[in-house]
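Record format v2
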Amino acid sequence: MNTEIEAGEPIRVLLAKPTHDCHDRGVRLVAKKMRDAGLEVIFINFLLPEEVVQAAVDEDVHVVGISTSAGGHLPIFEDLLAGLASQGRQDAVVIAGGVIPPGDATKLESWGVEAIFGPGTNADQAIEMIKGRLQTSQS
Amino acid sequence: MNNQEPVERKTTVFDDETLERSRKSAQDWEAAYLRLVAKFGDAAPPRATGPRTPSGIALKSAYFPHDIEDLDPELIGSPGAYPFTRGNLPAQYQLMNWANQPVIGYGLPEDTRGRMDALADQGMIGYFGQKFYNLVYDLVSHEGLDPDHRAARGRVGQSGMGVYSKADMARLFADMDLTKMNVVHITYYQVVPALAQYVALADDQGVAPDQLRGNSMNWYHQSAYVGMSAFPPRQGHKLAVELINYCSKNMPRWNTTNFFGYGAEEAGGTAVEEIAFMLAYGIDLVRACVESGLDADQALARFGFQIAQGNDFFEEICKVRALRRIWATTMKDRFGAKDPRSMHVRIHTHTSGVSLTAQQPLVNLIRTTLHAFGAALSGVQAMEVSAYDEALAIPTEEAATLALRVQQVIQEETNITSVSDPLAGSYYVETLTNQLAEAALELVDEIEALGGYIAAQESGWLRRRIEASAERWRGEVDSGERTIVGLNKYRTDEPAPTDLFEVDPKVEQVAIERIQDLRANRDNDRWEAAMKTYTEAAQVLAEKDYADLDGTLIEAAIGVAKADATTGEMMGVLKAALGWRAPHEY
């Protein structure tokens, strides 16, 4: 199922970071850059993945991005992907950022996480990826 | 006092003739320099035509004696003399090297203990050869939860040790004499349970609190720029003052508070912002301590600082010298501090983690060596050198050992430890030190005008200020104006690293079983009674003013820790009483 996006409708992105993870310098900057690029960004900190699922549903977002740099990411994505599917939102584009070791990155990709932006990538790469991905599904 | 005209005091380091010659040499040099630059035309790089530090301080391309002619020589002073620009003590490293303090913590208490012992075997020691452990708690504990909470899944023993009770403390320090070591408890906001459980363990061993040496972080103020859930700023501030009150009465050897400048710089702040934020918070904290009835000297003598040593070699060195000066002058002038220890800035340097790259990770060893070398030249008391693989995962034992070796090579092979404050008197270093001190004091005045640090935290001003700096930095990296080797220049295709550290997934199950056993088997009547007292103390604290703080809550916390209360239970009470919320949205 492809993410539906109407012509002229802004792309809505939910960016979320676990509350236990202090490394939020990157994701806050990404949020700002995305807004500057015309995307609608909702930013939340969460304790449990279902809070992210709920926000994704409530805000009807096209993209869900999780930023995690302190470990504990695998269960978050496991619950997030299952939660989105159970809410009929498996169409949402799920992306990740932060410190995710290569082995785990491979695992996340096999689960359906579409892109992983590790240390050193810049916000523009994520913005291009999102725009490209959603335009493709629109056509 | 009298009607005499003030005597014109000569305050410069140099006599008139030297200054005259200095100005002349500078003129000649500048003319020659500009001719050279002109030959390059537009090809002259910015560092040739308009050099600046990352804090935005304009630099000259060469410095001369007259650059420091207006600087009062008393402000430079001598090592160990007020205002301590050149160091806290007359001796720097001649009698004792700085303490090697790697941060340790992962998995179960026994796993962390294993690495403590391994690093101690490799020569990790503190002052006077004492055992010294810099221990970091895990993500679950940072969140104030127990390992069987749903949100703990995948986080137990990650990025720190899974220690959640007095029983876990006992596993961590099995067969060790707590009176013969110094333990730093690196927490975020679970400061109270960590201290209480440690004191409770000591009590089981027959060791009184006044025999314990170590540190609490008291890091509530860092929620101004660190994005985790936290207590509301004013409630956190009260917890900090409460702990200082308890320790000043019961734990005279315990260092109560750590000023977390490191976090400000890691979050994107400049060197000026880092030291100004620490001083501004210091002013607010001492003010509250004095309101609570403590003497400034009682509170101040047990404060410590964690600062970052980042890439800009000289600015990072000079910031340390500047901080020592402005801390001492401020604490003396504003609060009447008399004890030299109250004016000392005791520094643990953490080499900058944010400067490290996931790309070409071995290059990080070069970066951390330069950071550590700069910190050593600035005269700090203790150091943690980042491991080269930490942008990828929790460091391996090999990486942790190499980080220790960086310090040992500098300490034992370079001979820089023979001379105190070796860069003093450099026209450049003294000028930049002075500029950083002035810029920081100006920023502190700005924060004071906003009502002080806590008020500026509540309004989000501190956060916005740091974020603006972070954005500026990133813009420079993205545009290539700022080079990061291996990231935006000299890139290579490299295979993904494979030899990364992983925490055994069995850790989680063991931690859950242990905490559930503990709850099932403890003396429930004792636990209930202690929890009642503690809960009441927390509720009372929530309504208290600074003037009413007296350490009662910490006393009650030690009571519940002795009765085997867990970190999640202890933090749950504080969260309910004081409030707990996600970081601000701006």
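Chain A has one domain: 12-138.
Helices of chain A lie at 25-36, 49-58, 73-86, 102-111, 123-138.
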